[in-house]
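[recover] target loaded
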């Protein structure tokens, strides 16, 4: 999926940089059709009448909330501390793709300042 209406699509990443399932989306400047896909995947989702469907099989795209535990490493202590979870919504085609695991990988953050 590179072009729509004869124009090259510019894909932009929309997910957390730590995501297990990074995806990107784009919009055709000519017809306004939205597209999204997981980075590196051949399965493309297309937005039709406000609903995301799979370009390959026309199934309705489903979303899984993937939760990443955040581990905050306070430099002056040897132990790390668990912070909040970062949630992200990961789209997938229920026919063409496996459902993403709702348990995302741990995100390590080094706490460098103590402002809230
Ligand atoms: Zn188009
Ligand atoms: Zn599909």
């Amino acid at each position: 999926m590179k072009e729509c209406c004869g124009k090259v699509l510019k894909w932009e990443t929309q997910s957390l940089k730590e995501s297990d399932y990074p995806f990107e989306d784009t919009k055709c400047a000519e017809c306004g059709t939205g597209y999204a896909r997981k980075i590196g995947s051949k399965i493309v989702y297309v937005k039709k009448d406000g609903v995301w469907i799979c370009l390959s099989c026309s199934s309705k795209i489903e979303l899984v909330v993937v939760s990443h535990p955040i581990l905050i490493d306070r430099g002056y202590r040897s132990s790390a501390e668990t912070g909040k979870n970062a949630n992200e919504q990961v789209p997938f085609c229920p026919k063409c793709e496996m459902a993403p695991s709702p348990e995302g990988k741990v995100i390590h953050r080094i706490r460098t300042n103590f402002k809230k």
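[recover] notes: The pocket of zinc ion (ligand 1) is lined by residues 4-5, 28, 30-31, 33 (CB under 6 Å).
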